[in-house]
Amino acid sequence: MATTDAATAAPKKRSLLRADAAQKLLAFSALILIFIFFSLASPFFRTPDNISSILVATAVNGVLALGVTFVIITAGIDLSVGTVMTLSAVMTGVAVTNQGLPVPVGIVVGLLTGTTAGLLSGLMIARMKIPPFIATLGMMMIARGLSLVISGVKPIYFNDTPGFRDIMMGSVVGAVIPGFSVPNAVFILFGASLVAAFILGKTVLGRYAVAIGSNEEATRLSGVNVANWKTAIYALGGAFSGLAGVMIASRLNSAQPALGIGYELEAIAAVVIGGTSLSGGEGTILGTLIGALIISTLTNGLRILSVPQEWQMVITGVIVVLAVYLDIIRRRGR
Amino acid sequence: MAEEPILFLQSVSKRFGAVEALTDVDFEVRPGEVMALVGDNGAGKSTLIKGIAGIYPFDGGQMFWEGKPVKIHGPRDVAPLGIEIVYQDLALADNLDVVANMFLGRERISSFRRLNEAEMEKECSETLKSLSVTTVRSVRQAVAELSGGQRQAIAVAKAVMWNSKVVILDEPTAALGVAQTRQVLDLVRRLADRGLGVVIISHNLHDVFEVADRITVLRLGRRVAVLKSSETNQQEVVHAITAGKLDTVPGMVVQ
């Protein structure tokens, strides 16, 4: 209730908003510190090859996280992005390898698969009023099951299409500027981020995502068709999962049907570390990118230091909990 | 005030199961007047407003808009007529700035489906200026940063921005301090001076007498009085709200 008068209420709320910028700065500082720490701890960490592999790993998780950013800004959640990514990869594999269709068609099939899954989640949430957690948990299992059924529980390789792997791992820039062979994956992530930032900041869809997460009832009373826009936002999230599916298939030169579980949590972690609030209404694409970089840098560095994978999970888990705790501190008293 | 009512409800009623929330209620507001709607809790004020808003359409009676009968089927039918409702506590999205809130649901779009921020900002500033809402430092502030009075002013400005002819305000001063209440009441008065019909629901009779030209009193789902605020006093209104002794209340305007 806004019963406090202007003099006391206004400065308190302003300081809360400063804390929002502070979290992004904090995340960025954390990224720098993590980078410095691993650079000192292992000479191999700073090698161009390793940095390139960090960036390629960031690309897939980052693109997933871009889609999740929109969903979380509406105060929703999408647990299905990891397995939807896998399903999209499998569908691309079916199109390209099993059906012998051209690679661009396979890419479109992957994108459409992700978008359709997101659309269905959105319809369940917006029309059938199923809570996002449950609806997307269902979609997570549906997508995983379908991936296994369609692929016959076997990986689908892209051996007949040698160019497919170059989508991610080739370097268009390296061909133009010799010696500067940054993998395409980095530019795909960069391009997808620009598109996401444009949609979030400059279009009605982004505006309504923030409005719905901020005050769904006010948005409805303002004449916005909340159900339709929510559906569109989940479909957009699904499209990013579809893109991630094509990307991971290209990176591994195969569609691995058993993959995908756990990716959704890393994506959500990246979004939250980047300062997007789980209670909705605020979030940025830049923050999500920083969050995704933190996760993949950490994973990479810990592996280089030969930290057992079990402990890597523990550390990642602790960081996610800390990030969410910071989010809670930030909005306490609002 | 010889003008015809812009909005006129003729013996509307509404039932919720066995409960008769409104019984044959007449209600009107004329252009350029502030009509207060008062009554105790459960008197039917909210039901009446929600009926006009199309949230709970009336069971019986007829609504007239600018003299013509109209039928409201849902909330989407109301704004096109020129009726805007400012709901208590539900009006704004905190994380959006003033401009985004004012245009929520009716954004201006430029090429490549981009939001036309420059135009929206300009129109927003102009609207606030024309309503003498000068306390908001920047229209790019998130509304979470604004005081309660500023938020209410923005919510009201949002409602009048769309060439609306009737604005309905649900308890606009309920959460405000003295100075902020003053500002909002001044704003309400300015709306009426521009020729809008304003309906204000309030529990605060002091505010009602500050701003209203006429007062409609509801009691137990019936209209028990329509009073000119210049010809009555708080005691009589309280009497009408509680006892509803229609015949004995002086200053009653007979239609």
Structure in words:
The complex is a heterodimer of chains A (334) and B (255). Chain A has helices at residues 6-41, 48-73, 81-98, 103-126, 132-151, 166-169, 172-176, 184-202, 204-214, 216-221, 226-252, 263-273, 285-304, 309-331; strands at residues 156-157, 254-255. Chain A is an all-alpha fold. Chain A has one domain: ABC transporter involved in vitamin B12 uptake, BtuC. A two-stranded antiparallel sheet of chain A has the order 1-2. In chain A, helix 2 crosses helix 9 (204-214). Chain A is globular and about 55 Å long. Chain B has one domain (7-91, 147-242): 3-Layer(aba) Sandwich (Rossmann fold), CATH 3.40.50.300. Chain B is 30% helix and 25% strand. Chain B has eight helices and ten strands. In chain B, the strands form two sheets. Chain B has a six-stranded mixed sheet with strand order 6-7-8-3-9-10, sandwiched between helices. Chain B has a four-stranded antiparallel sheet with strand order 2-1-4-5, covered by helices on one side. In chain B, helix 5 (148-160) packs parallel to helix 6 (178-193). Chain B is globular and about 55 Å long. The mean pLDDT of chain B is 87. The interface between A and B is medium-sized, with 31 and 35 residues.
